[in-house]
Design brief:
single chain; alpha+beta; Ubiquitin-like (UB roll); Translation Initiation Factor IF3; 2 domains; five-stranded mixed beta sheet; four-stranded mixed beta sheet; rod-shaped
Amino acid sequence: MSNRRVEDGPRINNNITVPNVRLVGDNVPNPGIFSTLEAIKMAEAMELDLVEISPNADPPVCKIIDYQKFIYQQKKKAKEIKANTQKVVIKEIRFGPNTDEHDFQFKLKHAKSFLEEGSKVKAFVFFKGRSILFADQGEKLLLRFAYELDEYGKAEQMPKLEGKRMIMMLSPVKKK
C-alpha cells in the first residue's frame, strides 16, 4: 500500500518502473501480463502490495501479497537454510618430534573421538630449535597417526613442512 522500498529487498508498488509486469500468485484471478499501473491498482483494491519477485525476467514477475509477510517468510527460509548447513570444526593435535608411545596413544584416542563427532583433525609436529633435524621422525609419526586412524578418517594431504611445523589434515569418513 505504501511506496517504501528496502535497499536490498525487492521493489514494491510505485518503485516498480517498468511499463508492464507479469502477475502471478494466489491473489490474481487471471495471471498474465498487465501494465504496472493496472497491477498497482489491483493490489490497492485488495489492500496488499505489488512486489517484484523476479526483476530480471522479461517482463518482470510480480505478485500481489502482503510485503511484511513476504519479508518475514524470506527471513524464516534463510534462517532454516543457515541452521541446516554444517559447520566445519577443526581440532588441532600437537606432537613433538620425540613423542613417546603413551602420549601418542592418548592423542590418538582424542583424535578418534574428534573424527567420530564429525570434526576435522589438524595434526602437527612442532620442531623447537635444532629438533628440525628430526623432520623425518616427525613425518613417520604423522604417517603412523594417519594409518592408525584409517577407519575413522582419511588424510587430506601428506605431511608437509611449513616453517617449524609439519602439518597433516584428516577429515572424518562418512558413515553409511
